[in-house]
Fold:
Amino acid sequence: MSGETELPVPDTADVRSGPEVSDALLSVLPLLGEWHGEGVLAGDVAGADADVRFGQWVRFSHDGRGFLAYDSRTWRLTDDGQIVGPAARETGFWRPRGDGDEVELLVVGADGVLELYVGAARTTTSWELATDVVTRTPDAPEVTRAVRLYGIVEGALMYAVDRAVGEAPLRPTMSARLERIR
Structure:
């Protein structure tokens, strides 16, 4: 048994198998796949005196329609790389818009924050997005706006997230470098 659930409508993180890729995905197609690596969460965001390391797995997949499904799981790491336990988890959708390079990103986090980003491809392998709407549950972090920058550099997916809490200005929150595993 493979451990994966077989669904009647497949999706894939690989352009070589599964449903045909929609032409609408051309501006975000380089993201398609599974990525794994490490990143850093700003210490003041994590409630620590110093930055906190984390491991991360990200999957961008499609089912033949004009969006990428996005799933991300992170886990806390010690300074020497030992796994401490689970950390942030997100899911969402990358939705290319129109005929150009515009894209929407819908992200919901297990922490109770829902962010709707709008932005565009800056190049064929980089994207910049800023929140248009942020909403949250009563006990979620008081995120009021955010910016995400993604890029594929020398084959690695790199990203940075800046967030604002309350009326404070945007500040670096987290970043990572992920290698393609599939």
Remarks:
- The chain is about 0% helix and 60% strand.
- The longest strand covers residues 83-97.
- Residues 125 and 167 are 32 Å apart (CA to CA).
- The two ends are 20 Å apart (CA to CA).
